[in-house]
Amino acid sequence: MVTDGTAATGVSDRGASVPPMAQAEYVQESLAGLDPAVGGVDPALPLYATTFVVVDLETTGGAPDGGGITEIGAVKVRGGEQLGVLATLVNPGQPIPPFITVLTGITQAMLVPAPPIEQVLPSFLEFIDDAVLVAHNAPYDVGFLKAACAKHGYRWPNPRVLDTAALARRVLTRDEVPNRKLGTLAAYFRTATQPTHRALDDAKATVDVLHGLIGRLGGHRVDTIGDAIEFARAVTPTQRRKRHLAEGLPKVPGVYIFRAADDRPLYVGTSVDIATRVRSYFTAGEKRARISEMLGAAERVEAVECAHSLEAEVRELRLIAAHAPPYNRRSKYPERMVWLKLTDGPYPRLSIVRDLSPTDTAYLGPFTSRRAAELAAAGFHDAVPLRQCTHRLSLRTVTPACALAELGRCPAPCEHKITPEEYDDSAAAPFRTATASDPQPVVDALLARIDVLSRDQRYEEAAVVRSRLAAVLRATVRMQRLAALTGIVELAAARPAARGGWELALVRHGRLAGAGVSPPGVHPRPTLTTIRATAETVSGGHGPVPAATAEESERILSWLERPETRLVEMSSGWSSPASGAGRFRDLLAKAEGGASHQLSTERS
């Protein structure tokens, strides 16, 4: 079917024997092939070395439904040289509207002997293999081809697609051409073949238009096929002006920092491929308004190469915490974390504090905000009779009781109606037990309260208690997981690297102290020895996050808990309480999902 003219094979007249075509299971969406992240051609391939297949279709009109194609014309070129031609009429299996015949000159009689699309597709798909597909108004042509593949069971190869109409809108001004129609562009570039609304003629004209447009791209510093595809898309002037900032960056895991003219960090990010990730900020896929504003202020991009993804994530967190870049939203202020602790004294109460002291023995956290801590505190107040007043109570002097005592919500230690021992057993001890090991009594009390409220059809109040239960469980599960890791003086772990060898991490008290990658085919022990010798010295401290932020320790936990990660060495055992909060994870998921009607059945 690869010819210089039109290929045709005999088929019977459609009115007599062409079977009805099934409806295609296809919905036209945005063209993935227009995204430079897909397809088999390397986006860094220079334009002069790229193989293009320029295609044009004639159809019966209408939306892509798997049929309707009447002619395909395709020309394969590379470096300005024609490599091949594919052209054929196609029997669409349906009558041709008269206006299509007037427009294209293709008649019903011409299509009777032509092959149907299902016979044409194998040759066409082979013809476009390993090439960039080019079309004028590409979404239309590619949409018909994808629909035909979907209908007849052929896999669409999802090639990279370059739209000459979109490219012309970026390259040519209104002063040069009044519109971007193929005929107008053909006249402007003085193509050897004029478009005639026949597939092969239009494809050949598009080839000359493509070459003319590529000649104009050099002035825009567009030299590769990936750059050309992105240039054709609707990027902002700022993105186009600043895209040189992505040049020369390494294709390795690490952290990238957008810096202003005064070297101030504007934005910090991480990626397993710094060059590819930074380049994406200058594409049409980046639509965030704050990033657009950041790009306008950025003057350079700094890359910090890392051994592997875990080190990159940790360095990102530390840089954001240290510099608080204005365009980062998360992880900026770890010092704003708060704790919920049990105060000292004969009648302790819950207090929200910024820091823990070595004398604090019962606490919960850290919480990302005061509101989150208050929600958990309300959960404990619903479950156990902890006093909520802020007075310093004396064992000698009686203080007037508040309304909570009159409502039966407080045992009134201010009036000495309960001894310190009784108060500790009924109120303080459940908090200590819940945070350090087993939150079962608190969970049971909150579930019972939800049951009562639900039976009384006080559903809004039940939902409030449910949210408090979720806050308590979320905090206890998190703290116990963190404490189990940060209690280990030193831990070494390994994970297979993508390119062979092992990713190695040395963790001390929940802080990443060292990282590296052992070479493929070499035992990782020497690399681990070197990492340990050069690792950061980390001293332990008080609380579940003594040496790092909670977010850093959680990133490490996530890396360690992956199935492919192997624990190599530990200074002590890694364990959580057998009756700890972790066994309530399913209940927590239901509470967070709002499934209050299921909570009363959970008594883990």
UniProtKB/TrEMBL annotation:
Pfam families according to UniProt: GIY-YIG (PF01541), RNase_T (PF00929)
An annotated GO BP: nucleotide-excision repair
InterPro entries: DnaQ (IPR006054), GIY-YIG_endonuc (IPR000305), GIY-YIG_endonuc_sf (IPR035901), GIY-YIG_UvrC_Cho (IPR047296), Ribonucl_H (IPR013520), RNaseH-like_sf (IPR012337), RNaseH_sf (IPR036397), UvrABC_protein_C (IPR050066)
Transmembrane segments: none
Keyword tRNA processing among UniProt keywords: no
MF-aspect GO terms: DNA binding; DNA-directed DNA polymerase activity; exonuclease activity
Signal peptide: none
Keywords: DNA-directed DNA polymerase, Exonuclease, Hydrolase, Nuclease, Nucleotidyltransferase, Transferase
A Gene Ontology cellular-component term: excinuclease repair complex
Domain GIY-YIG: 251-329
The protein's name in its UniProt record: DNA-directed DNA polymerase
Organism placement in taxonomy: Bacteria, Bacillati, Actinomycetota, Actinomycetes, Micromonosporales
